[in-house]
Design brief:
The chain has about 220 residues and is an all-alpha fold. It has one domain. Strands 1-2 form a two-stranded antiparallel sheet. The longest helix has 30 residues.
């Protein structure tokens, strides 16, 4: 996907939906390097984690970690969705990709499969989904800014007809998308998922959450 986005545009409709510019190139390089480092560390992390039942130090309940295949598959799916969010040239496609990162990362937060990690995963899912829903409203408002301009939400079309957009609706859309994607970034007041998710997720996953996943939401704000 990244290679296809980096190739010269050939005029196909896909070029308006997925592509690479100077901004997305920076984010993609940072995400790839961080994922590489987290993966190298994660190999040793998973191998050191016991696969048998253990007793929780807090409530005494028994738990065991997710299978290694779930951890590996979830990590690769998270990388794919983050890459799609970075390379998206369409606001709706970017929203879908950012929402997909939430669904891909939740099982990784639940890696230890105990009560605390379950609570952290559900808190992360609920709060981030609320934020993503607000961002979706922002995209609807952007669509309402169109007067005689574009009939799609590609960045190229919006920039081309920027002078025809209704600035009141555009300001409203920015507020909703700032709050919505800001929730994904861990900005107050919808930031309470962040401490629990980082404390319960494995170290490699926590690094991806803070160093890569939050950048995808930040890019969504920058695009607006």
């Amino acid at each position: 996907m990244s290679i296809a986005a980096a190739l010269p545009a050939d005029g196909t409709p896909l070029d308006r939906w997925i592509g690479m510019d100077s901004l997305s190139a920076i984010f993609l390089v940072l995400t790839s390097l961080l994922f590489l480092g987290a993966t190298i560390y994660g190999i040793g992390y998973v191998s050191r984690e016991p696969v048998t039942l253990r007793r929780d130090f807090e409530d005494g309940s028994l738990f065991k970690n997710e299978p290694e295949s779930v951890f590996t598959g979830g990590s690769l799916l998270l990388l794919a969705t983050m890459s799609l969010a970075i390379l998206s040239r369409h606001l709706a496609l970017q929203w879908v990709a950012i929402e997909a990162t939430t669904l891909a990362s939740a099982p990784l937060i639940y890696f230890h499969q105990n009560r605390r990690s379950l609570e952290a995963a559900w808190k992360y899912l609920i709060l981030c989904s609320v934020g993503i829903a607000l961002a979706l409203l922002g995209i609807f408002f952007i669509r309402m800014t169109v007067q005689d301009g574009p009939h799609d939400l590609t960045l190229a079309a919006l920039l081309e007809h920027a002078d025809t957009l209704n600035h009141k609706w555009l300001s409203t859309a920015f507020i909703f998308m700032l709050v919505g994607y800001g929730t994904k970034m861990g900005l107050a007041p919808l930031h309470t998922w962040l401490p629990d998710a980082h404390s319960e997720a494995p170290s490699p996953v926590s690094a991806l959450l803070s160093g890569a996943l939050l950048n995808c939401a930040f890019l969504g704000i920058l695009r607006v």
